């Protein structure tokens, strides 16, 4: 019934679009994206579901955290263990929290022990734009990209441009951000510094659900980040660019046992050389990222706390040859070394353990072709990843699209993805299994894209079957490949402009089913996956009135289920969150901004045992000269 209704909806919308006469009005401004196919491409020519967040969007939304920024993207569902400084998990199109690959300026970031990236450690002030590609992209990016890929691009200013802002808000929140560009015709650097601090609130919920709030205090956080991004034009054919970023901070949390404070100290750098000659483009990138977290407190000194540290050495080679306007071929090799040798795991008795294996190498190669013939567009990609001590895995992506007219494109996609087991899955002392296999997925997607006059539309229907999911099995006190999921969904994103009014409507209807075998009955469970909401609806209105502008966000999130330590499933009710913001342009350089998060103070819990953030108010003063 569910899938049938989705298919009928797609047919109905497609019929309306295809029967509408082509409008001769000015087309939407071209947007170039990189993440969908690892090379520059017009967003309207991609056969993937892509959304872009620009710096203008960031300035308008005034997000306190990156989760504030991404919450209005259809298909992205965040679960929060508190506010901006606390841990959060992202379920992209219903897949697991470690099934979304996160890149910063092309650098794979995150923990090789947990398998995901802590979003609270990513500073919003450093971000220039974000590209969100929904759906498996493992054939281009390798492991982890089962649900999608999020790539963050850091600030890039021209020489002489500068920006300064300060913010104060609820829970003694304060922040300061400075960005400046300097250089000449050949070399330009952008330097950004940001600092943020908040006293926070008591995130733990003592509500009789199996929790005991033994620490009824505020859980604050602080974070600092510094980055430099540069571009050097060596000649008309050759360019060199680089990025260097340092992030550090700490946050407090409530814990009945173990530490109640965590410090992180992360860095990344990337040096890339690009050579272009007529129809050939080649790139070579050398990169490194470090993700370090130290947990202590509750009587444990920082020097005696548990340390989880991942160092990722990365070398990427890429070449694209444009045979003609209608055919191109892209090839790439990826070399990745994950190193967790600096981790120290402190047991309950105070002893220190190490992983049985502390280093893993992954060698990968891919080949991707893009072809056009009349109105048809085809993309075909194949990739092989050789993961040390884990069985090698081949993936593919096959897409076929048809440009019905100059503003409507329909396409179909079939792809295969995988996620390699983490170091915790394979080697965590006492709770792991070194024989684990990679998680696998097969995804089918149908897509409709349309752009006309001041309107744009994205409609997607997908089905993602994920097998060999790794889950903890209490029978053996270890992780095993015992779970599977069948996830179907429908997404709609529609934007239009009318005079000074800009509207955006988004909807995500999800059917995330747990298909793992019930040990008691021997049959598939066929129940809703935990912590996933089945529906999300959003509306955003932006009004520009000269020196004054304001925006309104309405985000409805449906109910979801959660459980505590294998206890009974409990429903967390749906909620509607209202966010408001306004900007007043005092003069050419100065502006004042006001932001109210969760204006109605809605009960918006996404996980058992944690309080929602509640209403927050922020006031910002900003100076810029561009």
Model description:
The chain has 626 residues and is mainly beta. It has a single domain (2-256, 264-350, 371-387, 396-624), classed as Maltoporin, Chain A (Beta Barrel), CATH 2.40.170.20. The protein is 6% helix and 56% strand. It has a 22-stranded antiparallel barrel. The chain is globular. It starts with a helix and ends with a strand.
In brief:
This protein is mostly beta strands.
**How confident overall, as mean pLDDT?**
90
Query: Which structural class do the helices and strands define?
Result: mainly beta
Question: Mind telling me the CATH class?
Answer: Mainly Beta
Which fold name is given in CATH as the topology? Maltoporin, Chain A
The CATH superfamily name is TonB-dependent receptor, beta-barrel domain
Unreliable spans are 1-7, 14-28
The fraction of residues assigned to DSSP E strands is: over 45%
Basic shape: globular
* CATH architecture descriptor name: Beta Barrel
The gyration radius over C-alpha positions equals 24 Å
Q: Report the strand count.
A: 36
What's the helix count? 5
| Total discrete domains | 1
Helix fraction? Answer: under 10%
Task: Give the biggest beta sheet.
Answer: 22 strands, antiparallel, barrel
Distance between the termini: 54 Å
